[in-house]
Design goal:
By secondary structure, this protein is α+β, with helices and mostly antiparallel strands. It has helices at 25-31, 37-45, 141-148, 168-176, 213-219, 252-261, 274-285, 290-296, and strands at 23-24, 49-51, 54-55, 61-62, 68-70, 73-74, 87-92, 122-124, 132-138, 156-163, 178-180, 183-185, 189-196, 199-206, 224-233, 236-237, 247-249, 300-302, 307-309. The strands form 5 sheets. Strands 7, 8, 9, 10, 13, 14, 15, 16 and 17 form a 9-stranded mixed beta sheet that branches.
Length: 343
């Protein structure tokens, strides 16, 4: 697990990033870990968010000293006063939703993440309830926003099993662009990854993260996605050692690489106290709950040539498959905790 580097000296306090001046409300609240900027703008549009008792409007500026309320409940924004940049990777199983609280009581991706005293984890992008694989979390709202914003062109790679006939003409259409109900969409890269007949595996890459986009693209061609797993987000791969329902914290090198990808300067990961480190280690090793045990029984991996299920007589294969991209950037794993693809 990538955590602190023994003997590594922390940077002087002068390097701490503080945010004292007025700034846009959605940026401030996102940095405090209360939601994505898009989500917070939605609160404004529906009149749910107030600042000092008045309805918030897009473009409005505020500071951490102002009073924020959502649905007449006070929001705590002290975490926005100082930027802390930590990043986790999580291997999401089926059956979990990518939201902080679910009105239907379903398990969420936040349920087993390590508890934070003065910050909150922000999910970077979403996966639907039936999709497994890599989810990133950070305490830095600006990093989260840049990694999710379409202008950053951060590629996401998925391993997908398709049920139905797939020919060269279909692949060409998916690469050229297909008109969906919310606009044109396409894969920036698409390559076979094993299987035969009408059950075949592919690795696909997208440069955006619209809702259920991978599934909708394939369904537009009359075929069905029967398995879907995210294996990479930008420079970060899902390592094969990270089993379903488990998380790891990225080390300094991997966080720096992720930050550089979206034009942010390096920032030291805060040191944990011995008690915090011990508590996080206990939580990281904790056995998955009943929902994830059920999902774990259906765990599957993808190799270069053949998809397999773990738990049988065949040796498990790596979960990242063949790294390949259509964006022109070299695909290599980073030496940090989550930078290895497990190939």
């Amino acid at each position: 697990m990538a955590s602190e580097r023994p003997g590594r000296k922390a940077k002087p306090a002068a390097d701490t990033v503080t945010n004292a001046g007025p700034e846009r409300v959605q940026k401030l609240l996102a940095r405090a870990g209360l939601g994505s900027r898009r989500e917070i703008e939605g609160w404004m549009e529906t009149g749910r968010l107030t600042v000092n008792g008045e309805a918030a409007v897009p473009g409005q500026k505020a500071t951490v000293n102002d009073r924020f309320e959502l649905d007449e409940k006070r929001l705590e924004v002290a975490a926005a006063a100082v930027t802390v940049r930590r990043v986790l990777i999580y291997n999401k199983p089926e059956g979990e939703v990518t939201t902080r609280k679910d009105p239907e009581g379903r398990p969420t991706v936040f349920d087993r993440l390590p508890r934070l005293k003065d910050n909150r984890w922000i999910s970077i992008g979403r996966l639907d309830i039936n999709t497994t694989g890599l989810v990133l979390f950070t305490t830095d709202g600006e990093l989260a926003n840049r990694l999710m914003h379409p202008s950053s062109q951060i590629d996401r790679e998925y391993a997908v099993r398709v049920f139905g006939e797939v020919d060269d003409a279909m692949i060409e259409r998916l690469m050229a662009g297909v008109l969906l109900e919310d606009g044109m969409a396409k894969f920036s890269d698409l390559s076979p990854a094993g299987g035969s007949g009408i059950n075949r595996w592919f690795h696909v890459t997208l440069l955006e993260g619209r809702n259920r986009e991978v599934r909708r693209l394939w369904e537009s061609q009359g075929v069905r996605v029967s398995r879907l797993k995210r294996v990479r987000y930008g420079p970060i791969f899902l390592p094969s050692r990270l089993t379903l329902g488990k998380w790891e914290e990225l080390d300094q090198k991997a966080v720096d690489s992720l930050s550089k990808t979206v034009g942010l300067e390096s920032m030291d990961i805060p040191q944990k106290t011995p008690d915090e480190q011990a508590a996080h280690e206990r939580q990281r090793r904790k056995s998955p709950g009943s929902a994830n045990k059920k999902a774990g029984s259906r765990r599957w991996d993808v190799s270069d040539t053949k998809p397999t299920r773990n738990g049988g007589s065949e040796k498990p294969r790596t979960g990242a498959g063949r790294p390949k991209t259509g964006s022109g950037r070299p695909r290599k794993a980073h030496s940090g905790s989550a930078g290895k693809s497990g190939r």
